[in-house]
Amino acid sequence: MITFKAFLSRRPLLDILVDRLRQSRLPRFSSHHSGIKHSFMGLINPDFQTLPELFTSVFSHFKGQPDKAPIARKINGAYSPISYDSLAEDCRHFAAYLKERGIEPGDRVAILSENRPGWYLADIAILSLGATDVPLYPSLPPNQIEYILNNCSAKGIIVSNMLQLGKILSIWPKLPELNMVIVMNKLDEPVEDVIDLSQAKTEGKKVLEAKPWLLDGIKSNPDDVATLIYTSGTTGLPKGVMLTHRNICENVKSCSTVIRIDQTDSSLSFLPLSHAYERTGGYYLMFACGARINLAESVETISLNISEAKPTIIFTVPRLFDRMKASILKSVTSEGGVKEKIFFWAVSTGEKYHKQLATGKVSPLLAVQHNLADKLVYSKIRKKFGGKLRYFVSGGAALPQKTGEFFQSIGITILEGFGLTETSPVTNVNRPEKVKFGTVGLPVKNVEVKIAPDGEIMLKGPNIMKGYWKDEAASAEVLRDGWLYTGDIGEVDSEGYLKITDRKKHIIVTSGGKNIAPLQIENLILDSPYVDQAMIVGEKRPFLIALIVPDFLKLRDFAAEHQIKASSTKELINTKEVIEVYEKLLKSISRQLATHEKVRKFLLLEEPFSIENGMMTPTLKLKRKEITTKFSAEIDNLYNTLNMVYNTE
């Protein structure tokens, strides 16, 4: 009986496979297969200078084409499109209502909503009046909403549902400037001084019939503030980032030369539109190119929605890839046997193929093996992602290099990028034709990158914010000599690819005076399948410790396999066998670290860091100060115990 390895290495059999592959016209898998389109229309109108100009040109282009739609949402089990004509009419009616209620150019109007058609409608209507919109994360508590609305003197707010409306009603007496509240959902019963979106559009239509000239002559200038996006605030109060029409429009144009999108493309939107990343990439860029945006039902239904919507591009964050990788590996290992062997052979083949591809020459034998792996494995994985996916775009946080390489090896291309809310936001992104994992890619058009003597990344370009709202001191701190000082530490390689090594504010200085970048150590820990989240602690301490949130699904599988009985999560993470898993992990990564970087001890936590418990920002960044404060007693106890051990030694 021939072994699997011997089967793959036999030349006559490979010749037969080559013939069969040619007969079936299976395309050779290459970088073109993973994302490059050679014929595309790109931007509908490459000359727009403001967002209203962008919207107007796209609406005009698709006028009278009911089969064309910028947005689709799930209704009764299927994706239902909203046509350009329908959206344009609704936006015009809603804008007329807002105008009649006193919204003037420069006024601030907030949006407090999950991703839904009403979000896009509100945004377009507000901007068409020359007003400034203020997007708010729906996860924000009333006190933070109150601060932002007062800080920007918002005249109106559009909320999604009764839950969000309840927040506003509870703080409305403390908001002297707010005189208009609109709810997207239909009101079942009247609420004083509140109108629902459907009623607002109906009234706006009547206003336009009586005053057809009402919206004529309204014009925004490129340097007008289009949006105030409040930073999520890992420390201190949030600051309002002033992004102008020029900032955003130039960034959309720059992105369109890298992420090549046309009218045949579609996305799946699930990252919050309140964030600049989804706003520019997942919304304005898609809209400007005539592509369709499919709205996910929720974060929990992403896998299902991908298979239903069949997107060609997905904007996401690294955390999703960790979950997808774990799901793929669990599915494969649970089947075991030949299927498992074939899968890991395909992964290995993919790794070798892309290493050779990077050198410009792939051996004929490996090319055939890769085509076979594509037919047996990669194509089936792509089918689970809808079958049309060209690539993922990853941002918002660092993508572990091994994660990127794993997905590349199974035929899924991830383009990691970088940017800040203050940069509208994209400054760098990997190119489909050359991805370098471990970096955030080359600068986009019109963006300059420079590294300061202390390693801080500096940026310059037409996408850089106007400043922070009502905060000249904070603006002056980061905007100096025409450059934006990002607060990120990084380096540029010989080919111009930028690598982020850490946040300047996150650098840990131990009691011995050693400067340590925690991100690289955290990524080493996160490479373990038994780890879901990790954070390094050690500021003004003699050594480092790690706070680790286990991957409890994987850990329970481990417990079952080793017949470990535990009645609770707390009991499970305190068993000897489980503790040994993490001791071995830290011991293994210590070989890759300098002495002062080694993690001496760890805490296993029962509860994950999340937005709900206040330990993550709405953009899924760790709130390090809050986490350290919450577990201060446990951290102190661990250090005291270890200090006693070191002192007795």
UniProtKB/TrEMBL annotation:
Gene Ontology cellular component terms for the protein in this record: membrane
Superkingdom of origin organism: Bacteria
The keyword ATP-binding belongs to this UniProt entry's keyword annotation: yes
Protein name: Long-chain-fatty-acid--CoA ligase, putative
PROSITE patterns according to UniProt: AMP_BINDING
SUPFAM superfamilies reported for this sequence: Acetyl-CoA synthetase-like (SSF56801)
Reaction it catalyzes: a long-chain fatty acid + ATP + CoA = a long-chain fatty acyl-CoA + AMP + diphosphate
Record keywords: ATP-binding, Ligase, Nucleotide-binding
Record lineage: Bacteria, Pseudomonadati, Chlorobiota, Chlorobiia, Chlorobiales
Gene Ontology MF annotations: ATP binding; long-chain fatty acid-CoA ligase activity
Species of provenance: Chlorobaculum tepidum (strain ATCC 49652 / DSM 12025 / NBRC 103806 / TLS) (Chlorobium tepidum)
Annotated Pfam families: AMP-binding, AMP-binding_C_3
